Amino acid sequence: MSSAQSQPDTLCEPGSEAGAVASPDATAHEPSLSDIEANPLREILTIAFPTVVTMTSYTIMQFIDALMVKSIGPDPVYVAAQGNGGIIAWLLMSLFIGLNTIINTYVSQNLGAGKAREGAAYAWNALWISVASWLLVLLPVAAMAPFIFGLAGHDETLLRLETQYCQIMLLGGLFTVASRSIGHYFFGVHKPQIVMISALIANAVNVFANYVLIFGHFGLPAMGVAGAAIGTSIGALIEFIIPMVIFLGPKFNSEYGTRAPWRFSFSHVRDIAKVGWPGAFMFFNEMVCWAYLMSVLIPKAGEAAGEDPVLHNTAGWIGLRYMHLSFMPAVGVSIAATAIVGKCMGMKRPDLAASRAWLCMKLALAYMALCALGFFIFREPLIAFFIDKGTPPETVDELIRIGSVVMIAAAVFQVFDAMAIVMSGALRGAGDTVWPGVATIILSWSCIVGLGHLLLEVAPYMGSAGPWTGAAAFIILLGSVLVARFRSGKWKTIKLIED
Q1: Among 64, 236, 258, 389, which one has the highest count of C-beta atoms within 10 angstroms of its own C-beta?
Q2: Residues 371, 377, 381, CA angle at the centre, nearest 5°?
Q3: CA-to-CA distance for 118 and 166, rounded, in angstroms?
Q4: What is the pLDDT of residues 425-456, one digit of tens each?
Q5: What per-residue string of b and e applies to 358-370 under the rule 16 or more CB within 10 Å gives b?
Q6: pTM, whole model, 2 decimals?
Q7: Among 221, 158, 203, 183, which residue's Cα sits nearest to residue 63?
């Protein structure tokens, strides 16, 4: 019998016999969850649902961008340009977004230990990291974007459009990184509803801004793909401002002391870097591999099969948009797992941490299994949804044929993706970040890049199905090894905060 089965499945308050010793501010600063803790499913859903809405925010913005730019004209280049430009911008931001996800762990563990006021300093220093990343990385790379995209050898139209989109997204990247950073603070104190509301408002603003800027309304010129990037950046600004106002407001300042620790703190940045760097490089490395897959391998595979590389690139991006919609809710469940596991570990209850993590994974598995079924059954209409009505029939047929293969590949690995995403979040909540990071790096380069290139050479007739096979192998193997890591229980011995 596991330790999760041998203990009663209820959370103990800090200071109780099974919990951590409470600090003087434990009662004043810990959220009241007594009615939720008796029902594990309700506890998870209470945190997970608003987190899911929040984490799909940027994905929905990208989805809306792709959906709206395809109406610019019948040429499929607009969807490809938005996808290529977006993934390079997200690639750079992901390094710092991945680093700052550890804020959730520190804040939730301090919450569980009855020291909720300790979390605000981690939030502030995550914001300082966001500013530094924008000044030192995002802005310089924005200036080099034409050279970077030029290396891919894309045609002149695609090169111009994808460069514009990427540069604008990087200029607004400060707000994207900062909004994710402050969001993880609210996840850690188990108040994700605040971030959810800001995400919903931000998406509404994004849709309106896209409508005005892409097509030209209210006297403004039609800006096309560049307008979509500006609309998304405006949405990111809104998504940052709303939670920041609440973070600095009198109520949160009174309960959690959010205003005082605004100064840069080397010790807190060191804590973030010490535990967060594997997650940062894991996230960044995975984005590098996916960017290489989408921008290089898939077009080359289409060309090797004697077909139009732009059509393969466009079909791949259409498929990936649906994959993002499917796995981002699982990412929301994963972040909820981080917050819940972190709180349980702060309370010295690894048994409850394990039981809650397994329940999170069951929820994600059920959801993504339904997505897999939908991808397989409705693959053709899903691809057709992103094709402009004025597109020539022969081009439509080719896009649907290529895209259907992509959707089948996605259906195959959906369940394993749920396993990888949730287990990664659960391990992060306990502070176990190095082992998953190393495993992700090894498997991503071996499968996405290595196997993708191998199939491109030995089976060029497969077209883009070859690189997608490598991507599927990566997710299947990663999900399996992270489940094995969690089952080993080594994460239970990690200690991040003082008693």
Answers
A1: 236
A2: 100
A3: 37
A4: 999 888 898 899 899 999 999 999 999 999 98
A5: bbbbebbbebbee
A6: 0.70
A7: 203
